[in-house]
Amino acid sequence: MKIRAAVLREMGAKPPYAQSKPLSIEELELDPPGPGEVLVRIKAAGLCHSDLSVINGDRPRPMPMALGHEAAGIVEELGAGVSDLRKGDHVVLVFVPSCGHCNPCAEGRPALCEPGAAANGAGTLLTGGQRLRRDGKVVNHHLGCSAFAEFATVSRHSLVRIDPELALDEAALFGCAVLTGVGAVVNTAQVRAGASCAVIGLGGVGLASVLGAVAAGAREVIAIDLSDEKLALAKQLGATRTFNAGAADCADQVKAATAGGVEYAFELAGAVRALELAYRITRRGGTTVTAGLPPPTATFPLPAVNLVAEERTLKGSYIGTCVPSRDLPRYISLYRQGRLPVDKLMSGRLKLDEINLGFDRLHEGKAVRQVIVFA
């Protein structure tokens, strides 16, 4: 079938993207689902820094590639062997498909699925297949989703069925921002009620971490960013204190306000300086969690003696250490109870043709989560 999709043909374009237009809206040929695959009509797709990091070249991927990985839609067609979904089901796309058989999957850690990671790096679906073409030439899949498009053929293992009463533009945010941000708090760090937390980097994922810390019952939720507007939003979402990361003595301010630092510090900015700040404001015996995905060449100069002398823990968190089929329904239930107000992360809704402008806003820090909505 013919579809319209946002395609990146070359990485490294310079902003403003509304002028350089790294993403072109193209007509592609989409193959029907093969065995174990599903055709999804995309209804909403969020703009995320993980997409931006491919556009600017920080996270190299095979070109050309149809971008988009945070999305929700409706099942249109089932490939052979898919028996647990039906046409018309509402689904959220998950950007690491889990095979269920490799060692991480067998250990209950599907976010670390080895075949899923290999497929994502190669620009294929979990099966190794590629279902997108233009003029007979392959267009690579982005993280098994390629969701900036009217339709997507994906692995069954990239989908979680959801309650059809949830608006699909809101549901899209659960596939990345919420899974990653809330999961870093409740799964990776396992924050307990009464703990003290700090979140550095208040994009969609960081603000979702703020929501997760509030929902977990943290007594102190400190929000840190360079943007006063995002700090104000974090305060509305339940942050107890805010600090501007641009202050030369930001770490000292936080430590003074918390009697030596927080029990849990979360780095969601994807920058080494942010990770250094997170580590500095973590108290003795505390845990620093990083989920920000800096460029592959970035390194962190760890003061190793602190790990022993202060019994520190430094942990990575990928997709919030999630089990998507377990966590997505839980987070959606919390949202519908009013305990996880994910809708407040929504900065605006766009048309597909406005996608480059949307990435300008994201690059400039003027948006939290923008969502492309398909009619």
Give a written overview of the molecule.
The protein has 375 residues and is of the alpha/beta class. The protein folds into 2 domains: 2-176 and 322-373, Medium-chain alcohol dehydrogenases, catalytic domain (Quinone Oxidoreductase, Chain A, domain 1, Alpha-Beta Complex), CATH 3.90.180; 190-316, Rossmann fold (3-Layer(aba) Sandwich). It contains 12 helices and 19 strands. The strands form 3 sheets. Strands 3, 5, 6, 10, 11, 18 and 19 form a 7-stranded mixed sheet that branches. Strands 8-7-2-1-4-9 form a 6-stranded mixed sheet, with no helix packed on it. Strand 15, helix 9 (272-280) and strand 16 form a beta-alpha-beta unit. Helix 5 crosses helix 6 and helix 5 (168-188) crosses helix 11 (324-336). The longest helix is centred in the middle third of the chain and has 21 residues, at 168-188. The radius of gyration is 20 Å and the shape is globular. The two termini are 18 Å apart.
Please count the beta strands (DSSP E, at least 2 residues each): 19
Low-confidence spans: none
What's the pLDDT, averaged over the residues?
Answer: 97
Largest sheet: 7 strands, mixed
Question: Mind telling me the CATH superfamily name of the largest domain?
Answer: Medium-chain alcohol dehydrogenases, catalytic domain
* Rg, Cα atoms, Å: 20 Å
Do you know the CATH topology of the largest domain?
Quinone Oxidoreductase, Chain A, domain 1
Helix content: 25-40%
Q: Please report the distance between the alpha carbons of the first and last residues.
A: 18 Å
Name of the CATH class of the largest domain: Alpha Beta
Query: What CATH architecture of the largest domain would you give?
Result: Alpha-Beta Complex
Residue share in β-strands: 25-35%
Which term fits the overall shape? Answer: globular
Provide the domain count: 2
Q: Specify the number of helices.
A: 12
Structural class: alpha/beta
